[in-house]
Description:
Helix content is 48%, strand content 14%. The chain has helices spanning 13-24, 31-40, 44-55, 61-74, 88-101, 118-123, 163-177, 179-186, 200-212; strands at 2-6, 27-30, 79-82, 107-112, 125-127, 134-136, 191-195. Helix 2 packs across helix 3. It binds BIS(adenosine)-5'-pentaphosphate. BIS(adenosine)-5'-pentaphosphate binds next to helix 1, helix 2, helix 3, strand 6 and helix 9.
Amino acid sequence: MKLILLGPPGAGKGTQCKRIVDRYGLAHLSSGDILRAERAADSELGRKAQHFMDTGGLVPDDLIIDMMIGAIKKASGGYVLDGFPRTVAQAEGLDEALNKAGETISAVVSLEVPDEAILDRMTGRRSCPKCGAVYHVVNLKPATEGQCDNGCGPLVQRKDDSPEVVSNRLKTYHEQTAAVLGYYQKRQASILQIDANQPIDAVTNAVFKALEGLDV
Length: 216
Ligand code: AP5
């Protein structure tokens, strides 16, 4: 199964991807996680991406397409793409690479959440810098406050989760990313629209139910 997970910042893409990959044995290919790892390694790509990520803009398409196509080639079986494609140019780049490899996407899962619900999710998010696990101070608490459940140590707040940067990320989403859903609608891809403005477990149930209906 090859899935694309779409949705605004804070829609719960990372949270739901973790559950999808655990259930279906897929690789989780998150453009945001890969970029954060590049930054932590102080690579050339990480340095180029830094300013865009810190201000809530998008890293240039050519860098992202190369990075994600490389990650897809390394994934041996099925995968879930999280945070990619984020522009129509990225979707076209992905299609070109898939066509060359004779592959297709099984479905596009669209997590739908109104902007009003996003700010609380982002400002309350806490992440593990070591294993990438994601928590929330109210909605998904770790067993011990401020500590990763996987024994990695202290949780951190992402720099780009400040209210000012979140507002820029939402603006960027509406200006550049929302059109990606229309791109897949025009291509008559299988699109699973999920109401993600409900508790985390209810969203997971809705996603699993929708995936069970897929003919793959
Ligand atoms: P990225 O890391 O991809 O950020 P994002 O898309 O903005 O998504 P998030 O990771 O913030 O949120 P999420 O939807 O995964 O939500 P989560 O599950 O964590 O990208 C970061 C930056 O990198 C971008 O701004 C850009 O600069 C760059 N970048 C990345 N990809 C790029 C690309 N393709 N092109 C160009 N640039 C790119 O949940 C959020 C919080 O809410 C958590 O605390 C969680 O516990 C909680 N929560 C989740 N679901 C629920 C629920 N149903 N109810 C209540 N709380 C919930």
